Amino acid sequence: MLIKTAQQMLERTHEEAAKMFAASLARRRRKRIDSKAPLPAFVDQDRWIAICTCGAGVACDPAWPAAYCYDCGTAWPITWPDEKVKGDIEAALELRPAVATKSWCVDQAVATLAAENVKLGLVEAPVEKRPIEEPTTPGDGTTLDVTTVELGALGGPVEG
Ligand SMILES: [Zn+2]
Asked: What pLDDT, in 10s, does the model give residues 124-154?
């Protein structure tokens, strides 16, 4: 399952969410503020959100024209990473079983997420990025020279 968007978090369509936002403002006798400046979406623990200028987190959905801050009454346009990058972010985070580790900061490179996945032991390091092992000299005591050791010495089955 991909990173949760507002639709999954709020379990509402955009139309329903916009109606609830309007009703919430009406109940509190507050005016809706439509911001022209967008907020950037990021991933916080498996959820696409943005942080309103009032400090509240707002649920974001790429299919929605705005994200709504119920605290201060602002409707925000949201900027998203481009579709390819967004897909790569989600693919990298989907490998992580722990929700607490499913986060991505705005401007964080996808390569950084991939490196974190290697550190978390979720994927193997790409071959070209593995450290090159120093060759050891046969018979220097650090390696077993298999050409001169009989199978019985290794504790394996000895035939005959
Ligand atoms: Zn707000």
From this structure: 887 765 566 666 655 555 554 444 444 444 5
By mean pLDDT, which of 28-42, 49-63, 126-140 is the weakest? 126-140
pLDDT bucket at 155, cuts 50 / 70 / 90: low
**One domain for residues 11 and 40:** yes
Please identify every residue whose CB atom is under 5 Å from ligand 1, which is an ion: 52, 54, 56, 69, 71-72
For residues 39 and 88, membership in a common domain is answered with no
- The rounded distance, in Å, linking the Cα atoms of 141 and 7 is 62
Which residues form the domain of 53? 6-79
Q: What gap in Å lies between CA 158 and CA 88, rounded to an integer? A: 51
Q: Which two tokens stand for residue 140?
A: 């220097």
What's the CA-to-centroid distance between 69 and ligand 1, angstroms?
5
How many A from CA of 64 to the centre of ligand 1? 17
Per the structure, how many domains does the chain have?
Answer: 2
